[in-house]
Amino acid sequence: MDQFPSFDLTNQIALVTGAARGLGRAISLALAHAGAHVALGLRDIHADAGLVAEIQALGRRAYPLQMDMAEIAQVQRGVHDAVAQFGRLDILVNNAGIAPGNPAADVSVEDYDLTMAVNLKGAFFASQAAGRVMIEQTYGRIVNLSSQAGFVALPTESVYCMTKAAIAHMTKCLAVEWGAHNVTVNAVAPTFIKTPGTDECLSDPAFRADVVERIAALHRIGEPMDVAGAVVFLASPAASLITGQTLMIDGGWTAR
Questions:
Q1: What residues have CB less than 8 Å from 113, skipping those under 6 apart?
Q2: How many CA atoms does the CB half-sphere of 249 hold within 13 Å?
Q3: Catalytic residue at 139?
Q4: Spatial contact of 92 and 14, defined as CB atoms under 8 Å apart
Q5: Boundaries of every domain in the chain
Q6: At what angle do helices 109-116 and 158-178 cross, to 10 degrees?
């Protein structure tokens, strides 16, 4: 009989970008709960808001890193420092992202450039830096945060949608290049999730009702751990034959 699937990440080393709150915080805690030690990529290294202590309370090590994803030198140094601290890097989660909303006719060059820099350029160069380490050690798991917005159009979010579509295709490209080195690259694509970043729009009753209706199969707003569970799966030995894929976590939105 074949060995049963394992979701155990004991003593794996993970790096999560945008770890301070929302999805990044939940993913960091879920990885630690599964056994991983976690390097925390933070736009402000002083803003972990107790996350280090929570991870330590789970019996894991946590290491905060200054990683503004719009600053490539910080991105590269963050990966280097994580490896220097822990001795290896098994898992990278490219979670950091921004979504300044504006009708396409009103998008400024500054907002366009910043969204591209954080959501796409930062994720690529974090993957590149981590990928070099993983190729050398012949093992690695990269999980990118795409979005349902990469597959359906969301009004006033054209640039964000573009970056998340690009993340899904970047995932395929890196998976094809690095698979021979036992490095898998996958993505998750969440719907609207209840986080500090979505609180304002979801507090509008009409907007919330429309979102719930569009989440066709389950009719509920997602919770951060709904996404974190999928990330843990893709980072685990149970997903060792999965690469180049984007897993929709949208409650059925895109199935309509």
A1: none
A2: 23
A3: no
A4: yes
A5: 13-193+223-249
A6: 30
pLDDT band at 191 (very low <50, low <70, confident <90, very high): very high
Contact 41, 18 (CB under 8 A): yes
SS3 57: helix
Task: Name the active-site residue from 63, 112, 139, 160.
Answer: 160
As a whole number, the mean pLDDT across the chain is 94
**What is the DSSP-derived secondary structure letter of residue 117?**
I
Sorted by sequence, the CB contacts under 8 Å of residue 46 that are 6+ apart come out as: none
CA 52, CA 72: separation in Å to the nearest integer? Answer: 24
- Are residues 225 and 167 in contact, defined by beta-carbon separation less than 8 angstroms? no
Q: Name the fold adopted by 13-193+223-249.
A: Rossmann fold (3.40.50)
Residues 111 and 102 sit within 8 Å (Cβ to Cβ): yes
Structure tokens at 37: 């030690």
pLDDT digit string, tens, across residues 115-142: 999 999 999 999 999 999 999 999 999 9
Mean pLDDT of 57-61: 98
